[in-house]
Amino acid sequence: MSEHEGVIVDREHDRLSRWSAKRRAYGELARWDRPIGAWLLFWPCAWGVALAPGPLAWWLLPLFALGAFAMRGAGCTINDIVDRRLDGHVARTATRPLPSGRVGLKEAVGFVFAQCAVGLVVLLSLPPAAQLVGWLAVPLVIAYPFMKRLTWWPQAFLGLTFNWGALVGWTAAHGGLEAPALALYAAGLFWTLGYDTIYAHQDKEDDALVGIKSTARLLGHRSMPWLGGFFAVMVALLAAALGLAGAGPLGFVGLAAVAAVLARELHALDLDDGAACLGRFRMNRDVGLVVFVVLLLGRVGT
User: Fold this and answer.
1) What are the Cα distances from residue 75, in Å, to 31, 280, 294?
2) Average confidence (pLDDT) over 21-43
3) Phi then psi dihedrals of residue 10, to 5 deg
4) Where are the domains of the chain?
5) Does pTM surpass 0.90?
6) Residue 249's CB: how many other CB atoms inside 10 A?
């Protein structure tokens, strides 16, 4: 069955099936049935808040959750607008709303503006310094959909974009950027390099046919040691962020749990099995939670 008949290969739940056809198409554009991307956008924001010194600015977390949900949907819609012709030639994406004609181009553009309006409300609710840092991410958001045509490392560019929230979260909670936030941002970059390379292995054959570049295609059968390296650097940079922030010993002890979850993600991973890649990719929602808890533990005793 096609997507509009109710089956999407990477759908996490089927709530959209109860909606009208048009509402369902908009939901699919924003990936409301696949919230993993919103989680991956939210966690770096939460990390920045958790790492920042002083009392925990817990009130920022629901704001960042709403912003992540809205901006992830806007980003997916922009990506589908840019890729609407390519998507028609890829089995996994051919029945998306734009290439299948269920949503028109003008409707999709209007939907982008509506979602960005929600994100703007969230941004304007943050302290001025955090607003400035947030605005600096706009060029990355605009440029990312084109990177898969320009570089073999679009996953790195996604990492630069998706983890910007670590800088915004720290700045919103603390008032200005400092070295710990930069180390945390770099850790997120290597995290994204890992999980999005795994995700890209689902589409490597179709991507080769239409000329889309990715680290999955670039690294090929050498991907596993690279993935291990990406995640090892992530853990090392998390340790650096904790050290620079003057974290307590529980944070450093907790890094063992982060390493264990990442090792489990790679254990017995078959990069030629699309379903296995999708399942391991989704594990990163748990990775983000574990890192958040570790950063909170680092606040103990400081």
Assistant:
1) 10, 22, 29
2) 87
3) -110, 20
4) 3-297
5) no
6) 13
